[in-house]
Amino acid sequence: MSTRSNIIIKHGKNNILLYRHCDGYLDGAGQDLHDCLNSSRFSNSIDEIGNFNIAKFVNKLLIDDCSYRLDDQLGGDIEYLYIFEFTDNYEHGEHYNRVKLKSITVDQDHKYGNGGKEKYKSLSDFQNAILKFKEVA
After folding, report:
1. Looking at the 3D structure of the chain, how many domains does it have?
2. Rounded mean pLDDT, 21-27
3. pLDDT score at 48
4. Residues ≥6 apart with Cβ < 8 Å to 136
5. β-strand 5-11 against 80-88: which pairing, if any?
6. Which residues contact 47 (CB under 8 A, 6 or more apart)?
7. Are 13 and 88 in contact (CB under 8 A)?
8. What is the C-alpha separation between 78 and 67, in angstroms, rounded?
9. How many alpha carbons fall within 13 Å on the CB side of residue 92?
10. Paired sense of beta strands 117-120 and 98-107, if any
11. At what angle do helices 31-38 and 123-136 cross, to 10 degrees?
C-alpha cells in the first residue's frame, strides 16, 4: 500500500502543488524534501538564515527526481501534507529566485493520516523531527 503525500511550496501569492504517490512518510518524502532544499542553498553556508534558490528546489523535485508530479488539487487519500513557506529575499541580478525559509508544516491529520500537525521554523528542526521518526519506526 502506498503512502501518498502532497507538497505545497508557498512563495508570496504563488503556490506550487506537487504529489508523491509512494513513501510519503517523514523518513521517505520528508527526508527527500529536506535534502533537496538543503542542496538548493545560494551559498554553502550551513547557518539557518541562509538563502535558498526556490527554482533549484522545484527543479530538483520535478526534473531530477521522478517521484513527484505537478498537481492541481490536493489528493483525496493523502496521509501527509508538507507545506514549505518562503519569504522573498529578492536582489537585482542573478538572485531572482532567492528566498528565505519561513516554515515547514507537516500535516499528518489531513484526510487519512493520524499523526498530528507540526510546524518547523528551520531546516535543522525539520531534520531533527525526521531523525526522531526514524528512531521510532
Report:
1. 1
2. 93
3. 46
4. none
5. parallel
6. none
7. no
8. 15
9. 0
10. antiparallel
11. 150
Bridge partner list, 85? 10, 103
Cell output for 116: 498530528
In one-letter notation, the amino acid at residue 101 is: L
Find where cell 521510532 sits: 136
Backbone angles phi, psi at 56, to 5 degrees: -65, -40
HSE (CB half, 13 Å, CA atoms) of 57? 27
Residues 95-133 pLDDT 10s = 678 899 999 999 987 666 577 899 999 999 999 999 998
| Parent domain of 28 | 5-136
Grid cell at residue 98: 532567492
